[in-house]
């Protein structure tokens, strides 16, 4: 190397030779980077014999503690620097993450720090993030991949509770995410259905399938969509720079080491998340993303996975069979965290099963109920569900505000709706069990009811399923009760009049069909809407007793 390329001019002190290289110590990281860049620039401009490769010198800069002993520097940092140097290529300047953080905003004009990703260096326990110092006049073609094994940095949150059930869901998600054409899977479902926990557990089990990293981006506290890009970069532990686009930084890293990114709680900033996801998947074809949200992103690349409630115990099961049901297992597990001797027994199995059915297998509701096991038996808890929102209140100080009570969880979804959809949801609360479009149309008296139903279902406020060639809708009882609470007394009465008129008319039609000899057809139709017909009769009886006009109670001739 020509003498004027030596770094003494930048305050460096040569400490040791290593074969065909040497180690230089600096007091400041900025001096070390400046010396490396200037040395490479001068090497590029030096006259080299034809038989000597011009770009044969590689450099690495690492910041760490060393000790001066008998005129020589010693320490683990020197060993790590030599391992980083071995991973580089001629003409390349590498630096550690600590060095990059120290010098990012103080490097010279035109000098950039390029995040190359996370690598495992020989004899170094933990993976290291490595940066390339790029500068004007550097070779134009990109350097080959570093001569080191890509590393894993899993940034998933630590979860202290047991994961119950969901094995089929995880297997399905694993298969879906490993499909070559699948980049984005959105887990949807109402608040408290376990989307976040399922995403974390799925990502944890997928770690070995990705040679890159697994990153978790928490969006719950993000209120401005403009902050999403920075949240992604922060979750990936990328050094922030005032002049660098954080999402572009993230895409650069992921393009070198594609992996899995989990974006959690996206429903309140769905537009911003959709824009960020669209950018990432366009720049990183091998990237896989899991998004949890109460509503889908509506992107072409999106595959939606609706998170179902936990399986419920059927009536009249044995204690052993009840104990094997995932919803029961979750309740008992969370109860044992509060009271260690909580068990399912022959004496309480039926009550626990009934409680789980009333709570519809929703993980958050089960956890909130289990928190009261010190003062209430399962049988007493069932009785408390007459006012479920007063009962289902948690005591955990580390729970987010929207998950401390069942009411807060549902209200969060409700407040995300535009006013016209809030009105429709409240009006639909007079319907019971499940219902079809014609029933919703009769109750709400809206010309655009189908569009409203699509929007509400997109927000995970009810689910649909086909039955006998007709699409039927079902709203969780907790959501229905909340929506009913948004009605005024006068509006509730008007809606019940319309509800009774529709379903009592349906009951009379069933009676006519039975009289005409079409008994099976009549019975099937009656059974399908029996819950609503009974509610209509109750509404009619109550209105008649109160002297309300417009209602008449007609009992169908056929029932079963």
Describe this structure in words.
The chain has 560 residues and is α/β, with parallel strands linked by helices. It folds into four domains: 3-149, 2-Layer Sandwich (Alpha-Beta Plaits), CATH 3.30.70; 167-306, Rossmann fold (3-Layer(aba) Sandwich), CATH 3.40.50; 319-410; 417-545, Winged helix-like DNA-binding domain superfamily/Winged helix DNA-binding domain (Arc Repressor Mutant, subunit A). The chain is 43% helix and 14% strand. The protein has 22 helices and 17 strands. The chain has helices at residues 29-45, 76-87, 97-103, 167-178, 195-206, 228-235, 246-256, 270-283, 319-323, 326-338, 349-358, 363-370, 378-384, 388-391, 406-415, 419-428, 437-444, 449-458, 477-484, 489-515, 519-528, 530-545, and strands at 13-18, 21-25, 59-61, 67-69, 72-74, 93-96, 112-120, 128-134, 149-150, 184-188, 214-218, 260-264, 288-293, 302-306, 434-435, 463-467, 470-474. A five-stranded mixed sheet has the order 3-6-8-7-9, sandwiched between helices. The protein has a five-stranded parallel sheet with strand order 11-12-13-10-14, sandwiched between helices. It has a three-stranded antiparallel sheet with strand order 15-17-16. Strand 4 and strand 5 form a beta hairpin. The chain is elongated.
């Amino acid at each position: 190397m020509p003498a004027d390329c030596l770094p003494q001019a930048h305050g460096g002190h040569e400490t040791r030779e290593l074969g065909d290289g040497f180690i230089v110590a600096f007091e400041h990281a900025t001096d070390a980077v400046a010396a490396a860049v200037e040395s490479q620039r001068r090497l590029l401009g030096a006259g080299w014999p034809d038989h000597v490769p011009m770009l044969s010198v590689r450099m690495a800069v690492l910041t760490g503690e060393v000790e001066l002993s008998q005129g020589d520097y010693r320490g683990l940092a020197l060993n790590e620097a030599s391992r980083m140097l071995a991973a580089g290529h001629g003409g390349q300047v590498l630096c550690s993450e600590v060095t990059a953080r120290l010098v990012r905003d103080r490097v010279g004009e035109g000098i950039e720090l390029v995040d190359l990703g996370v690598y495992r260096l020989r004899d170094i326990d933990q993976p290291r993030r490595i940066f390339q110092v790029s500068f004007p006049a550097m070779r134009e073609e990109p350097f080959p991949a570093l001569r080191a094994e890509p590393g894993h940095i899993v940034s998933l949150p630590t979860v202290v509770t047991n994961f119950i059930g969901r094995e089929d869901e995880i297997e399905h998600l694993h298969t879906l995410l490993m499909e070559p054409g699948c980049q984005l899977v959105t887990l949807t479902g109402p608040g408290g259905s376990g989307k976040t926990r399922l995403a974390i557990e799925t990502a944890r089990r997928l770690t070995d399938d990705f040679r890159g990293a697994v990153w978790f981006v928490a969006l719950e506290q993000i209120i401005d969509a403009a902050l999403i890009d920075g949240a992604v970069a922060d979750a990936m532990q990328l050094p922030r720079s005032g002049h660098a686009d954080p999402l572009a930084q993230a895409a650069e890293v992921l393009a070198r080491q594609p992996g899995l990114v989990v974006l959690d709680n996206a429903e309140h900033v769905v537009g911003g998340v959709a824009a960020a996801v669209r950018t990432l998947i366009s720049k990183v074809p091998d990237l896989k993303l899991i998004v949890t949200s109460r509503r889908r992103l509506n992107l072409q690349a999106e595959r939606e996975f609706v998170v179902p409630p936990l399986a419920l115990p059927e009536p009249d099961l044995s204690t052993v069979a009840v104990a094997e049901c995932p919803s029961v297992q979750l309740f008992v597990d969370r109860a044992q965290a509060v009271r260690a001797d909580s068990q399912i027994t022959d004496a309480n199995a039926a009550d626990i099963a009934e409680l789980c059915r009333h709570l519809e297998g929703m993980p958050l509701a089960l956890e909130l109920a289990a928190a009261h096991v010190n003062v209430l038996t399962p049988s007493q808890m069932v009785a408390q569900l007459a006012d479920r929102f007063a009962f289902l209140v948690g005591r955990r100080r580390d729970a987010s505000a929207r998950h401390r009570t069942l009411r807060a969880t549902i209200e969060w979804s409700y407040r995300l709706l535009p006013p016209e959809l809030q009105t429709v949801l409240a009006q639909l609360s007079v319907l019971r069990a499940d219902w079809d479009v014609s029933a919703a149309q009769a109750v709400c008296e809206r010309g655009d009811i189908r569009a409203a139903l699509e929007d509400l279902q997109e927000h995970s406020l009810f689910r649909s399923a086909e039955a006998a060639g007709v699409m039927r809708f079902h709203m969780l009882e907790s959501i229905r009760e909340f929506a009913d609470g948004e009605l005024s007394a006068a509006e509730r009465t008007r809606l019940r009049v319309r509800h009774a008129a529709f379903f009592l008319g349906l009951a009379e039609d069933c009676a006519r069909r039975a009289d005409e000899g079409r008994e099976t057809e009549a019975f099937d139709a009656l059974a399908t809407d029996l819950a609503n017909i009974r509610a209509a009769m109750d509404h009619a009886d109550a209105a008649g007793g109160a002297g309300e006009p417009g209602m008449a109670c007609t009992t169908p001739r056929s029932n079963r």
